[in-house]
Design a protein that fits this description.
single chain, 2 strands, about 140 residues, mainly alpha
Length: about 140
C-alpha cells in the first residue's frame, strides 16, 4: 500500500476521528447556577429529592453530627438511590466523612447503621456488626 493511501484512522488506533456528541450534554444531577454555600450542593439536581424526604419527615433533616451537614435523609437517599449497602459505603464513599474526620464519622456510625438497617430490613445483629466493622476501619485513619 502506498504511503499516501494509508488511512489516517489506522495510524490512531483504527478508529476514525469524529466530533464529540456529548460535549454539550449535561451529566446526571447537573445544575446550571450552583451555589457552593448551599448545604448539600454536591447533590446537584438530586438535592430536591433529598429535600422531599425531609419534607415527608422533618426528623430526617437532623444532622448526623453537629459539625457536618450530612443528614439522616442523606443516608436514606444513599440506600434508596445510590445503592449504599454498608456503613462504610455511606461514610467513606458517599459523604467522605471517614476522610474528613474519622473520629466524627465513628460517632455517626450507630445512627447510620440504624437508619440503613431500618430501610433495608436488617436486624440488631447487622447493626452491631456494621458499627464494629466501621469503628475498626476508622481507627486506622486516626493519627496518634
Amino acid at each position: 500500500m502506498a504511503e499516501d493511501t494509508v488511512n489516517k484512522a489506522s495510524l490512531v488506533g483504527g478508529l476514525p476521528e469524529k466530533d464529540c456528541v456529548t460535549k454539550n450534554m449535561p451529566i446526571h444531577g447537573y445544575v446550571k447556577n450552583i451555589h457552593f454555600d448551599t448545604p448539600g450542593y454536591f447533590y446537584g439536581a438530586d438535592r430536591a429529592h433529598i429535600m422531599d424526604i425531609i419534607f415527608k419527615d422533618s426528623a430526617l433533616g437532623e444532622r448526623l453530627h453537629p459539625d457536618y451537614e450530612f443528614t439522616k435523609a442523606d443516608v436514606l437517599w444513599a440506600v434508596r438511590d445510590e445503592m449504599a449497602r454498608t456503613v462504610e459505603d455511606f461514610l467513606a464513599r458517599r459523604v467522605r466523612a471517614l476522610f474528613l474526620d474519622a473520629r466524627a464519622s465513628m460517632k455517626m456510625a450507630p445512627e447510620v447503621a440504624f437508619l440503613m438497617a431500618k430501610e433495608m430490613g436488617y436486624d440488631q445483629t447487622w447493626i452491631k456488626s456494621q458499627i464494629n466493622q466501621y469503628v475498626e476501619l476508622a481507627k486506622g485513619y486516626i493519627l496518634e
